[in-house]
Amino acid sequence: MTGCFKGIITAMVTPFDDKGVNLKEFGRMIEYQIEGGADAVVVLGTTGEPATMTEEEKTETIEYAVKNFKGRIKIIVGTGSNDTKKAVAASIRAEKLGADGVLVVTPYYNKCTQEGLYLYYKAICDSVNLPVIAYNVPSRTAVNILPETCEKLADIPNMAGIKEASGNMAQVVETMRRIRGKLDLFSGEDFLNLPMLAIGGAGLISVTSNIAPALMKRMYDLVKSNKLDEANEVQDFLLPLEDACFYEVNPIPIKAAYNMLGFNAGVPRPPLTEMSEANKIRLLKEIERAGLKGV
């Protein structure tokens, strides 16, 4: 299945306060994405810290996004787990609550086989009618979806794409060769956004677009218009900012960046920590260099 999603898809942070999820601020952040030209948002992806959220918090966050923004921007919900039953249940919940699709990270910690990966995604796809995007990020999960497994997944009717964050461009190219015309490829590595688009990627599922959706959208539009020289200029401009957004483990820097733009993103939940003061200074310099303006 192809064509369900494209363009700039922002992996949203979840703003917390002392009462739980700050839904009002979450709404302001999604409005910022819409104003910047983003095509979709991911709610409860890795950047949203779902591992530290209660099931009630997850439900209210999905409900809020769908109720207030569905139809204006597509809502994709992160539903992956290291337990297939839990991933299935989370995906069913997302569908019942009105999500446009689900993003499903590979099972982490368990280190399953390629056959285990296939059966995991098949069980999830069989449980819902929503388009499903697989998320490959072996640096976090210790599991890598190989190109031949991606090709096999393409035969599942509602499997809609692969978010590739392996960082291995040779693997990405081979995956694209095997899934072209059958599944969509999404860049999950901001540093590799342009080359992944250039080989036929459908879009970006980005962390940096939290604070720079308009710049990301411009780069995407230039690539899709075959204006690669101009796209490279924008990407060259973006790279130092993208680097700054990963000075510390995601989402520590991007939450700090939102706060610098005038939002109230709060701080990450333990075991994550606030960004160091030294790195905040470096991050702020890049935000100012990029000319970003918040609210």
Describe the protein in words.
The protein is α/β, with parallel strands linked by helices and 295 residues long. It has a single domain (7-227), classed as TIM Barrel (Alpha-Beta Barrel), CATH 3.20.20. It contains 12 helices and 10 strands. It has helices at 23-35, 55-69, 84-96, 114-127, 138-141, 147-153, 169-179, 193-198, 213-224, 228-244, 252-260, 277-289; strands at 7-11, 16-17, 20-21, 40-43, 74-78, 101-105, 132-136, 159-164, 184-187, 203-206. The protein has an 8-stranded parallel beta barrel, surrounded by 6 helices. A two-stranded antiparallel sheet has the order 2-3. Strand 6 (101-105), helix 4 and strand 7 form a beta-alpha-beta unit. The longest helix is centred in the C-terminal third of the chain and has 17 residues, at 228-244. The chain is globular and about 45 Å long.
Q: What is the subunit organization of this protein?
A: single chain
DSSP summary: helix tally: 12
Label the structural class.
alpha/beta
The count of domains is 1
Number of strands: 10
The CATH superfamily is identified as Aldolase class I
Element-level helix/strand string = EEEHEHEHEHEHHEHEHEHHHH
Task: Give the low-pLDDT segments.
Answer: none
The appropriate CATH architecture is Alpha-Beta Barrel
Biggest sheet record: 8 strands, parallel, barrel
CATH class: Alpha Beta
Helix content: 40-55%
Distance between the termini: 38 Å
Strand content: 5-15%
Query: What best-fitting shape do the alpha-carbon axes yield?
Result: globular
